[in-house]
Design brief:
InterPro entries: FAD-bd_PCMH, FAD-bd_PCMH-like_sf, FAD-bd_PCMH_sub1, FAD-bd_PCMH_sub2, FAD-linked_Oxidoreductase, Oxid_FAD_bind_N, Oxy_OxRdtase_FAD_BS. Residues 30-201 form the FAD-binding PCMH-type domain. The protein is of the alpha+beta class. The protein has 3 domains: 3-82, Uridine Diphospho-n-acetylenolpyruvylglucosamine Reductase, domain 2, CATH 3.30.43.10; 89-200, 2-Layer Sandwich (Uridine Diphospho-n-acetylenolpyruvylglucosamine Reductase, domain 3), CATH 3.30.465; 204-404, Vanillyl-alcohol Oxidase, Chain A, domain 3. Helices cover 27% and strands 25% of the residues. It has 13 helices and 19 strands. It has an 8-stranded antiparallel beta sheet with strand order 15-12-14-13-17-18-16-19, sandwiched between helices. The protein binds flavin-adenine dinucleotide. Flavin-adenine dinucleotide is lined by residues 25, 61-69, 72-73, 83, 102, 123-125, 128-129, 131-133, 135-136, 138-139, 185, 187, 190-191, 303, 403-404.
Amino acid sequence: MTATETKVIYRDSPTYEQARVGRVFNHRRPKRYPHGVVEATCVQDIINAVQLAKSEKLRVSVRSGGHSWAAWSVRDDAILIDLGKYNFIEYDEETKIAKVSPSTTGRILVEHLSGKGRMFGGGHCPDVGLGGFLLQGGMGWNCKNWGWACEQIAAIDVVTADGTALHCNEQENSDLFWAARGAGPGFPAIVTAFYLKTRESFKAMKNSTFIYPLSEYKVVMDWVQKAAKESDESIEAVAVGIIDPTTQVPRILTSFLCFQQTESAAQASLAHINASHPPGAIMEAVSQPTSLANEYCGQDLANPHSHRYIAENAYIKNDADVTEVLRKAMTTLPEGSKAFTLWFSMYPGSRRELPDMALSMQSDHYMALYTVWEKEEDDQRCREWVTDVMREVERESVGAYLGDSDFQVRKTRFWGTEQGKRLMEVRRKWDPVGRVCGFLDEGDKSGVEGLENVHEWQE
Ligand SMILES: Cc1cc2nc3c(=O)[nH]c(=O)nc-3n(C[C@H](O)[C@H](O)[C@H](O)COP(=O)(O)OP(=O)(O)OC[C@H]3O[C@@H](n4cnc5c(N)ncnc54)[C@H](O)[C@@H]3O)c2cc1C
């Protein structure tokens, strides 16, 4: 098959605009215009798209689930390879490994595996594509205890920047496999399949949630950090600064999601949380039965479609006064917006030695701003709020997670020093001409150099 046999949607096509941004989750749409879009349905389409880009001296960009906040898939001078129509899941009963297409979402994989008594801890938002999610590391369900989702990748299939199909694992093409777990959009090839280790599904999931007025901020934030640290390995813990959608009053919500096999084990795991939560809650839902399907519905409500978004984030230093560092972020959300601020406990996973992979930045505390609004006229106000909050928070951070970052706006560290250097070398080895678009920094200039992996402020 030659490149001409794969359909390319060019800029003069009536379907171009839909192909360019129709699957981009963030409705703050970029003013970047790919040369053409290939809606791949097979590996050959992907190879053909790369060959076409080579012959036309263009770059390639990739889209799996379209959930990159900064729309990294939409790039100038590129052939955009959209994998939305390239779909498969194959589950091997013997190895318990699922081979999935990168466009597969967390929800679709969970639904597929549930009948087999298995699960995979994909993204909290049901429609995030596994492609972008896993390449960044993947802060999936119960990440603090189960580790990064990318640690469950047994192997990948790729098409290289030169258009060659390869298999990669710890033994074969091991440097690409190393990079695939933490390079994010800097991965110098196109993943065509992930081979994922699955885990036993949970028969008893329960959730304890408490909502407090802002007057209780300090007591609640101090408590949630302590309670998360003292929880057993079945519990994921978050605190969220929210705006109550009915009253528009800001609140602090804490939630403890428990993954267990029996009712009694779940009750026992949540007991210390239920008993120790501070008084003064305006809403309590104690040890409520739940399921991943139910949790996905909640995530869908918190992250509505057809809205404008800015995401920002930081790993806060382990020894910081987290309650005070996050006070502004948690308690001054932009009025009238649907924004929320998250603190996510990463302890004890943050204290263990990671496998040898590009992902290498860890701390006990993850914070992220999800600024959500509807109208373009609020863009500047929301952007200014994010910049203002992050200016203070970043000085108490060790770096950030690629998945909730925008390199056009803020520089910071994403990997350990050695891993960051190695990643840029692996990228140059596998893609010396910068065929794959890579990191979208200001002006989209980073190319084969990649990111500096430094804070923009002096330490
Ligand atoms: C509502 C929402 C909720 C989220 N929740 C979570 C969460 O719980 N945990 C978490 O860790 N993250 C979360 N994220 C962040 C999310 O994981 C990232 O935005 C991720 O990049 C999305 O992957 P995608 O495939 O959907 O995005 P895409 O926009 O399709 O891909 C992003 C980029 O990744 C690269 N890429 C994607 N697929 C491939 C491939 N096959 N080969 C090579 N490169 C590829 C490309 O550079 C691409 O531009 C969330 C995002 C949103 C919008």
